[in-house]
Design a protein that fits this description.
Blueprint (H helix, E strand, L loop, with lengths): L16 H16 L8 H19 L12 H24 L2 H28 L5 H4 L9 E2 L3 E2 L9 H20 L2 H18 L5 H21 L2 H8 L5 E5 L11 E5 L1 H19 L6 H23 L6 H18 L3 H5 L6 H30 L1
Antiparallel strand pairs: 1-2, 3-4
Helix pairs in contact: 1-2, 2-7, 2-10, 2-11, 3-8, 3-9, 4-6, 4-7, 6-7, 7-10, 8-10, 8-12, 10-11, 10-12, 11-12
């Protein structure tokens, strides 16, 4: 694993953040460019998503393994839960005024975005604060806002830099909520992507494979078989998607945009990040991260090509999932390391023990349920 940098320089960063910092700067420049020049839309989509996955993956490299990770049961349930949420949003937009749904959801996501944006920026600006206030904590009022903020026990004690950045983030989110400018939308969306890829842990390649395969079919069903996914994406005016300006103007004077859902970045991104941490553990004796990242880019390119050829919305995971899984597992097969890669797990011992206990408990319950049936047969 990467070693921590000395406390005198970038105390909150790790050596892995050097490539991440470069990717962040490129990502910021690419996001600002359409404000002054016309950037080819297809290039913008591919480059932005690729840089977000690259930066988020490097941010995920920590000195210690994650304390909590997704389990196989979680991965199996994810497409079902996602389907329920997606269909619920579809019904909301169908039976509730669109402006009301968007106002409430944007307000809720905007509140969360304050914390997400602060967390995303903090590691790169902390050292610019004076040493005397860098780690000074402030006690917050003991209040609770259901589903948004809970400090009833007084455990939240932010530092002065965190409060200053939170105030700036609050102003930025307020601007987004008032104007709904595409640039503000993309900044918040990218912050969600970077934080998601950094902090969400699959725990193992097997769990990641289950999740990606499940969402592969989820994306195909909701895009090709129903109008639900496209309808929600078009009606939901919030930072759940990135907007890419197209050249030209519509007849009503509004600028047209191409869209890319955050899920098409975060879901494959957390798997690519897992593969990067596998390479880091092996001190880069293996190069599976390159395969995973190139597979992601290839899948994204295929999505754009098919979308332009058929002039219709495409389920991006239909192309990204085979690209990522095929590149990683194919590379492992050719390198004769398939079993080592497929069985890789970084779950903390406590997490593995918890899963083992759950599986043992489930086995005992099945055994107890089977005994009465056997006794009935003997009678």
């Amino acid at each position: 694993m990467a070693d921590a940098k000395p406390s005198s320089s970038h105390a909150t960063l790790y050596t892995s953040d050097r490539p991440a910092l470069t990717a962040h700067l490129l990502l910021l420049g690419l996001s600002l460019a359409p404000l002054v020049v016309n950037v080819p839309t297809n290039f913008n989509i591919i480059a932005t998503a690729a840089l977000a996955v690259f930066a988020g993956s490097w941010r995920s490299v920590k000195p210690a393994p994650p304390t909590e990770s997704m389990t196989k049961k979680d991965a199996m349930r994810f497409p079902i839960v996602g389907s329920c949420v997606l269909f619920g949003l579809f019904l909301l937009f169908k039976f509730v005024p669109k402006w009301l749904v968007n106002a409430l959801l944007s307000l809720y996501l905007g509140g969360i975005a304050i914390f997400v944006l602060t967390s995303a920026v903090m590691p790169y600006v902390l050292d610019f604060f004076p040493e005397v206030i860098r780690h000074r904590e402030i006690e917050l009022p003991h209040v609770k806002i259901p589903y948004v903020f809970d400090n009833s026990d007084g455990s939240m004690r932010p530092t002065v830099p965190e409060l200053i950045l939170a105030a700036i983030s609050f102003g930025f989110c307020g601007w987004y909520y008032a104007k709904k400018h595409w640039f503000a939308n993309n900044m918040l969306g990218l912050a969600f992507c970077l934080e998601g890829i950094e902090h969400l842990s699959l725990g193992s390649v097997q769990v990641g494979t289950i999740l990606l395969v499940g969402l592969f079919f989820y994306d195909i069903f909701w895009v090709f078989c129903t109008p639900v996914m496209v309808s929600v994406a078009k009606n939901f005016d919030g930072p759940i998607k990135l907007l890419f300006p197209r050249a030209g103007m519509l007849e009503n004077g509004k600028r047209p945009f191409a869209m890319l859902g955050l899920g098409d970045i975060v879901i494959p991104g957390i798997f690519v990040a897992l593969i990067l941490r596998y390479d880091v553990q092996r001190n880069f004796r293996s190069k599976y991260f390159r395969s995973a990242f190139c597979g992601y880019v290839a899948g994204l390119v295929a999505t754009i090509v098919v979308m332009n050829v058929f002039q219709a919305a495409q389920p991006a995971l239909l192309y990204i999932v085979p690209g990522v899984l095929g590149a990683v597992l194919g590379h492992a097969w050719l390198a004769r390391e398939f079993r080592a890669v497929f069985n890789f797990s970084e779950a903390a011992p406590e997490q593995e023990a918890k899963e083992g206990a759950e599986n043992a408990a489930a086995g005992e319950q099945e055994g107890k349920a089977a005994k009465p049936e056997e006794s009935k047969k003997t009678q």
